[in-house]
Amino acid sequence: MDLTQAKQISITLPDGSAKTFDGPVTGAEVAASIGPGLAKAALAIKVDGVLKDLAAPIAGDAAVEIVTAGHEDSLELLRHDCAHVLAEAAQELYPDTQVTFGPAIENGFYYDFARATPFTPEDLAAIEQRMHEIVDRDETITREVWDRDDAIRHFMEKGEKYKAEHIETLPRDAEISIYRQGNWLDLCTGPHLPSTKKLGHAFKLTKVSGAYWRGDARNEQLQRVYGTCWETEKQLKAYLTMVEEAEKRDHRRLGREMNLFHLQEEAVGSVFWHPKSWALYRTVED
Predict the structure, then answer these.
(1) pLDDT for 146-183, tens place per residue?
(2) At what angle do helices 121-137 and 74-93 cross, to 10 degrees?
């Protein structure tokens, strides 16, 4: 028996059909075997229901689904990658910026940064423009597994204390997953797109707010940059229009502009009535 012969594996597709491959195969190879159109459109794969990188090796028999635009998991994948592109852009423009974490959230994404100087609206515009440039560079995104101590040393030498601290809190046997995006890299469990070009340009940075490292008010304060990301420019425009219309009807804004009431930090959630609105309120109450 030839022990060097690769073991054949069977890949079952969503329609119930099966394909056989010699030895481990990647999602990209499975997509290419189905057709060039699917290979071009592929963003990621699901292996036995688990979302993985397109380049992830499949070593045994499995049910595989190719994730493309419009798939139920594609939008979260895009938004997660948008957070990474945001972080790369911010560090390219402002090298004194440390990165922490940046997840996908409902309608978009955010990334928490440690930086002494507050981000301004002009900074956000510059970062967003650099993000578009990074997408156009078509930077390859690859996953690497690092030795724990090497990863801690790398981030400490780069001045990325938050990343190093997080790795130190992980279990000793935890796999340290690093995603390299062009010349930039980040600690992340993934999965991610195969390249920045797959992200497209349907995204926009929306605001900056404060946050605390690990969500604890006893820790350092960070700057949280929010953005929204969609599969198409049409979807992005529709979302921004919806937000704009909602803001026009925001009771806090209307109360302020019509001199009816205001809110203030000293009593969060309380309404401070102005004379004419208080008179109206009492009339209705009576």
Answers:
(1) 999 999 999 999 999 999 999 999 999 999 999 999 99
(2) 110
Residue 176 tokens, joined: 């340290």
**For the segment 98-154, what is each residue's pLDDT rounded down to a tens digit?**
999 999 999 999 999 999 999 999 999 999 999 999 999 999 999 999 999 999 999
Residue with tokens 């609206």: 121
In 226-251, which positions are buried (b, 16+ CB within 10 angstroms) versus exposed (e)? Answer: bbbbbeeeeebeebeeeeeeeeeeee
> pTM of the prediction?
0.85
**pLDDT at residue 274, rounded to an integer:** 79
E strand segments, the chain = 8-12, 18-22, 25-26, 44-47, 50-52, 57-58, 62-67, 98-99, 104-105, 108-114, 141-146, 176-181, 184-187, 203-212, 221-229, 261-262, 272-273
CATH number at 9-68? 3.10.20.30
Q: Which residues pair with 203 in a beta bridge?
A: 229
Distance between CA 237 and CA 70 in Å, rounded?
Answer: 17
The CATH code for residues 73-246 is 3.30.980.10
